Amino acid sequence: METSVTTEKTETVIEKISIYSLQLQELKDWLKEHGEKAFRAEQIFDWLYKKRIADFSEMSNLSKNLREILEEDFTLTTLKTLVKQESADGTIKFLFELHDGFSIETVLMRHDYGNSVCVTTQVGCRIGCTFCASTLGGLKRNLAAGEIVAQVVKVQQALDETEERVSSIVIMGIGEPFENYDNMLSFLKIINHEKGLNIGARHITVSTSGIIPRIYQFADENMQINFAISLHAPNTEIRSRLMPINRAYKLPDLLEAVRYYINKTGRRVSFEYGLFGGVNDQVEHAQELARLIKGIKCHVNLIPVNYVPERDYVRTPREQIFKFEKTLKDAGVNVTIRREQGSDIDAACGQLRAKERKEETR
């Protein structure tokens, strides 16, 4: 099984598919096509996700012939660690290099309730949010499902050294997950599967900037995955300034899609709201936000933004953050302030890549 990848220099490179891209049933189907018993798929999954081996030759309960066929048809996606930044609070940010030379970020965040991994779904991003380093240089390509899975495996291998485990996943790294929908969905099914990484659906969160057709589609998947919307504004004018996608997918239509999701799944949504000094962080903005989301089964996650040198936004003062939170609470909104992590490293999404790989982000 091979796929052609066109690089930025328009050279076509033939790449074997990552075995991490296959869901269990897909692997069973492949085995049957090659005259092998379907139960071998569970053995292979055990080697990949429980033992986390680095080479097909280590799959000692498989025949030599099967191991050779696996080696011939697939690759064990390897991510080369270019930079590993460790924060005093335990946060670790990885800059990984892909097979074609592009780079992505993955972040391990430590919480009282366990270890969370923030994964990337695209090399770069075309959404164009004016506060985000991820969009610098635009979109290069989508990640294959296996390249997303491999990020979690790579972090888990690092945690194996201290006998810890990844307990939750957030799909909030570089890129817009809903623009890489099929690969994202395959990733979700692989890491959620009990024979895979076995991470519970309610310990997985996917966030979108507001690709409305995909929100309806995701609602109809009826998965128990946590769902977040990058809102960042209390009205259309400010949201269009911060997030150009609002010009294509209007705020009223976005909220209608959110209501459909809630009615379809019975689950609440989270609204991510980054606070930008003097832009969207005043008491009147909080009052307007409360009116905007009134009646929606939701939670607001206030995010004190990390400073990005390539962007002009400034941090909201601490006392103003608390005023904003109190205004929402007084209006009956369920709200929390996201705990800051990695403030002593390149914590903002895309910031490490922008610093280390300037040729990708110009």
Automatic annotation (TrEMBL):
Major subcellular location class: cytoplasm
Residues annotated as transmembrane? none
UniProt key word Transferase: yes
Active-site annotation: E105 (proton acceptor), C349 (s-methylcysteine intermediate)
Query: Which CDD domains does this entry report, sorted A to Z?
Result: Radical_SAM
**Swiss-Prot/TrEMBL GO biological process terms:** rRNA base methylation; tRNA methylation
* CC per GO annotation: cytoplasm
Alphabetical list of Pfam families matching this protein: Radical_SAM, RlmN_N
Identify the keywords attached in UniProt to this record, alphabetized: 4Fe-4S, Cytoplasm, Disulfide bond, Iron, Iron-sulfur, Metal-binding, Methyltransferase, rRNA processing, S-adenosyl-L-methionine, Transferase, tRNA processing
Cofactor info, note text: Binds 1 [4Fe-4S] cluster. The cluster is coordinated with 3 cysteines and an exchangeable S-adenosyl-L-methionine.
Specify the superkingdom: Bacteria
Q: Where in the cell is it found?
A: Cytoplasm
Q: What is its EC number?
A: 2.1.1.192
Nucleotide-binding as a keyword?
no
Where is [4Fe-4S] cluster bound in this sequence? C125, C129, C132
Cofactor names from the entry are: [4Fe-4S] cluster
Q: Which GO terms describe its molecular function?
A: 4 iron, 4 sulfur cluster binding; metal ion binding; rRNA (adenine(2503)-C2-)-methyltransferase activity; rRNA binding; tRNA (adenine(37)-C2)-methyltransferase activity; tRNA binding
**Occurrences of domain Radical SAM core (ranges):** 111-344
What does it do?
A: Specifically methylates position 2 of adenine 2503 in 23S rRNA and position 2 of adenine 37 in tRNAs.
Which PANTHER family does the protein's record reference?
Answer: 23S RRNA METHYLTRANSFERASE, RADICAL SAM CORE DOMAIN-CONTAINING PROTEIN
Which NCBIfam families does this chain map to?
rRNA_mod_RlmN
Anything further noted? Answer: Reaction proceeds by a ping-pong mechanism involving intermediate methylation of a conserved cysteine residue.
Please report the name of this protein according to its UniProt entry: Probable dual-specificity RNA methyltransferase RlmN
Identify the taxonomic lineage of the organism of origin.
Answer: Bacteria, Bacillati, Bacillota, Bacilli, Bacillales
